[in-house]
Amino acid sequence: MSEKKLVVAVVGATGAVGREMLKTLESRNFPATEVVPFASARSAGTKVPYGDSELVVRELKEDVFEGIDIAIFSAGGSTSEKYAPHAAAAGCIVVDNSSAWRMDERCPLVVPEVNPEALEGHNGIIANPNCSTIQMVVALKPLHDAAGIRRVVVSTYQAVSGSGQKGISELETQVRQMFNLKEPEVNVYPHRIAFNCIPHIDVFLENDYTKEEMKMVHETVKIMRDPNVKVTATCVRVPVFYGHSESVNIETERKLSAKEARAILAQAPGVQVYDNPSEKMYPLAVDAAGEDATYVGRIREDDTIPNGLNMWIVADNIRKGAALNAVQIAEELVRRDLLGVKDRTVFIKK
Ligand code: A2P
């Protein structure tokens, strides 16, 4: 019996997330008959690892999407804005990791454990949420279903890999420079990141929040499909290579004890409860790095309000926060038989 053709492209295949996407497709045995890596003209002809072999990187152009079924993009917002409509017009479904399409009402914003049904009736471009949002909603959705979350106060501790390869290199270089008693060079972040915390991710907006913080606010509401969930966020870059951590305080309509919350989360898809403080067991970025799960610990009642809980949520930002979530969306498209783009004009008519 001949295998059904399923061609998958990874756009931004030479980047930190793109490489992880290739690894994830391979390790999860994604049923692709062919995987095609794309990057900028700079990388055309170079090779990227895929399983035991290597794939030759092709240059991304507007006309490359014919014959490709799914293109997973992680090459920055401007690349997605420019190329994703061409992909959809060629009948190729885009799963986009940038922020370019997330709040566009034509595009579902999907975390497969939370709102996979949003994929039905897609128009060809599907958005992968922000890394900090993904891990938070994976943990909060089951608590919302059980007790109705009304308010979320989140502070993030975000790894440098969230800025791509250049963020990883910046921290490495600065640490090396400082151990050699040299003045660290600051290129990527607004200040030194080595041995420091920077409460500034993405640009500042008119309301004095950063764009990263407002992504968490708006994306959470869109994914949970509940405008009654109010979110306020402070996003902080920390000198950690892989794994975002989050301190999350929630206020619920119905009282949830810490024990109940632990029991709900223990059953939740994609979540692992790791919560035994007396044994020094709580989620750590270094343990979450390289893993698929979203870890939740330090679950405790907030007795300053009637129905409050505090928790600590950690996940690998490159995996669940980016590559894994995107590949899970692609898997869900296959499972639900949603391949193909019904109306190829949605993003090009304007
Ligand atoms: P390249 O390596 O050719 O620059 P990271 O987030 O780790 O910095 O990775 C960004 C990814 O996006 C890289 O694979 C990069 O390719 C790719 N990329 C950046 N700009 C473009 C572009 N204009 N067209 C295609 N790919 C791009």
UniProtKB/TrEMBL annotation:
<dbReference type="GO" id="GO:0009088">
    <property type="term" value="P:threonine biosynthetic process"/>
</dbReference>
<keyword id="KW-0521">NADP</keyword>
<comment type="subunit">
    <text>Homodimer.</text>
</comment>
<keyword id="KW-0560">Oxidoreductase</keyword>
<comment type="pathway">
    <text>Amino-acid biosynthesis; L-threonine biosynthesis; L-threonine from L-aspartate: step 2/5.</text>
</comment>
<dbReference type="GO" id="GO:0009097">
    <property type="term" value="P:isoleucine biosynthetic process"/>
</dbReference>
<dbReference type="GO" id="GO:0004073">
    <property type="term" value="F:aspartate-semialdehyde dehydrogenase activity"/>
</dbReference>
<keyword id="KW-0028">Amino-acid biosynthesis</keyword>
<dbReference type="Pfam" id="PF02774">
    <property type="entry name" value="Semialdhyde_dhC"/>
</dbReference>
<keyword id="KW-0486">Methionine biosynthesis</keyword>
<dbReference type="GO" id="GO:0009089">
    <property type="term" value="P:lysine biosynthetic process via diaminopimelate"/>
</dbReference>
<dbReference type="GO" id="GO:0051287">
    <property type="term" value="F:NAD binding"/>
</dbReference>
<dbReference type="GO" id="GO:0050661">
    <property type="term" value="F:NADP binding"/>
</dbReference>
<feature type="binding site">
    <location>
        <position position="237"/>
    </location>
    <ligand>
        <name>substrate</name>
    </ligand>
</feature>
<keyword id="KW-0791">Threonine biosynthesis</keyword>
<comment type="similarity">
    <text>Belongs to the aspartate-semialdehyde dehydrogenase family.</text>
</comment>
<feature type="binding site">
    <location>
        <position position="102"/>
    </location>
    <ligand>
        <name>phosphate</name>
    </ligand>
</feature>
<feature type="active site" description="Proton acceptor">
    <location>
        <position position="244"/>
    </location>
</feature>
<dbReference type="GO" id="GO:0019877">
    <property type="term" value="P:diaminopimelate biosynthetic process"/>
</dbReference>
<keyword id="KW-0457">Lysine biosynthesis</keyword>
<dbReference type="InterPro" id="IPR012080">
    <property type="entry name" value="Asp_semialdehyde_DH"/>
</dbReference>
<feature type="binding site">
    <location>
        <position position="158"/>
    </location>
    <ligand>
        <name>substrate</name>
    </ligand>
</feature>
<dbReference type="InterPro" id="IPR000534">
    <property type="entry name" value="Semialdehyde_DH_NAD-bd"/>
</dbReference>
<feature type="active site" description="Acyl-thioester intermediate">
    <location>
        <position position="131"/>
    </location>
</feature>
<comment type="pathway">
    <text>Amino-acid biosynthesis; L-lysine biosynthesis via DAP pathway; (S)-tetrahydrodipicolinate from L-aspartate: step 2/4.</text>
</comment>
<protein>
    <recommendedName>
        <fullName>Aspartate-semialdehyde dehydrogenase</fullName>
        <ecNumber>1.2.1.11</ecNumber>
    </recommendedName>
</protein>
<dbReference type="InterPro" id="IPR005986">
    <property type="entry name" value="Asp_semialdehyde_DH_beta"/>
</dbReference>
<dbReference type="InterPro" id="IPR036291">
    <property type="entry name" value="NAD(P)-bd_dom_sf"/>
</dbReference>
<dbReference type="Pfam" id="PF01118">
    <property type="entry name" value="Semialdhyde_dh"/>
</dbReference>
<comment type="function">
    <text>Catalyzes the NADPH-dependent formation of L-aspartate-semialdehyde (L-ASA) by the reductive dephosphorylation of L-aspartyl-4-phosphate.</text>
</comment>
<dbReference type="GO" id="GO:0071266">
    <property type="term" value="P:'de novo' L-methionine biosynthetic process"/>
</dbReference>
<dbReference type="InterPro" id="IPR012280">
    <property type="entry name" value="Semialdhyde_DH_dimer_dom"/>
</dbReference>
<feature type="binding site">
    <location>
        <begin position="161"/>
        <end position="162"/>
    </location>
    <ligand>
        <name>NADP(+)</name>
    </ligand>
</feature>
<feature type="binding site">
    <location>
        <position position="317"/>
    </location>
    <ligand>
        <name>NADP(+)</name>
    </ligand>
</feature>
<feature type="binding site">
    <location>
        <begin position="14"/>
        <end position="17"/>
    </location>
    <ligand>
        <name>NADP(+)</name>
    </ligand>
</feature>
<keyword id="KW-0220">Diaminopimelate biosynthesis</keyword>
<feature type="domain" description="Semialdehyde dehydrogenase NAD-binding">
    <location>
        <begin position="7"/>
        <end position="122"/>
    </location>
</feature>
<feature type="binding site">
    <location>
        <begin position="42"/>
        <end position="43"/>
    </location>
    <ligand>
        <name>NADP(+)</name>
    </ligand>
</feature>
<dbReference type="GO" id="GO:0046983">
    <property type="term" value="F:protein dimerization activity"/>
</dbReference>
